[in-house]
Amino acid sequence: MASDGDGKSSSGSSATQKSSAPEPASKLKVLALHGYRQNGDSFKSKLGSLRKFINKYAELVFVTAPHVAPTMEAGAEADPTQRSWWFNKDDGTFKGTNKNGPAVGFEQSLKLVEKVWREEQCSGLLGFSQGACFVGLLCDLSARGMTSIKPEFAVLSSGFRSGSLVHLNYYENKVQIPSLHIFGETDEIIPKEMSQALLGTFIDPQVLTHPGGHFFPAQAVQKPAYVEFFRERLQYHLEAKEIENATAENSIMLDENGADGNGADNDEEDSD
């Protein structure tokens, strides 16, 4: 179900300018969630330019939703490559603007994403459209301790709040992790007002807009914003790992040598 990024080094003028900088010891692993009627492979193909931009800092892990989206033509057979994370309409389809509908299949998708997150040891989330909506829900569930997914950051393109009844209370608390929100000024499928409403559920969100419609932009003009965001996230991740490792080493030393560091117990002997 999951596939990793291509792992190729980025090229171009930016690579030349940064040639003197040391390569990071490791990369972030970011779980990438596709939009409605997409799948992991098609989403990976669409994000080819983005993967090149951030290759030094992050590796995207793509996963395919477990549900096949129904065909849009009556009587036609469904295309198994068109997938959905859940359905929010009574006819068994999904539409981002639909309100007060169900969330059929959401729990199954949650279990799948939790499994891939654990197996791939990811540290961040990225999503487009329905996938970005899913990322927002995962961030809220994580903040409330209701999922094993603990993202350090999130990237949401054409994101929106879920209109499903069961999800309405997910947006009562602020999400405190760093986030980058991307949306188009002329998006007719998920109007920018819906993406702006999702901003309100995150503390200090970063915003990147583009003049286009419903797609994940990855042109030269957006490259600096992506590189800066993922570079900062990797730096923070590595610093946190260093602190975690140092704390673990100190704990081991205390366990081996005793609380005072010389192998003696600190407890005083009883005396009459």
Structure overview:
By secondary structure, this protein is of the alpha/beta class. It is built from 7 helices and 9 strands. The strands form 2 sheets. It has a 7-stranded mixed sheet, with helices on both faces. The chain has a two-stranded antiparallel ribbon with strand order 4-5. β8, α6 and β9 form a beta-alpha-beta unit. The radius of gyration is 22 Å and the shape is globular. The C terminus is likely disordered.
Layout of helices and strands:
Elements: E1 2-3, H1 13-17, E2 28-33, H2 40-46, H3 48-53, E3 58-63, E4 67-68, E5 83-84, H4 106-120, E6 124-128, H5 130-143, E7 153-157, E8 179-184, H6 192-199, E9 206-210, H7 223-257
Write the H/E string, N to C: EHEHHEEEHEHEEHEH
Strand content: 5-15%
| Total count of strands | 9
- Measured distance between first and last alpha carbons: 70 Å
Structural class: alpha/beta
Averaged pLDDT, please?
87
Q: Give the helix level as a range of percent.
A: 25-40%
Global morphology: globular
Q: What is the overall number of helices?
A: 7
> Strands across the major sheet, in which order?
1-3-2-6-7-8-9
Radius of gyration: 22 Å
Unreliable stretches covering 5 or more consecutive residues? 5-24, 260-272
Biggest sheet character: 7 strands, mixed
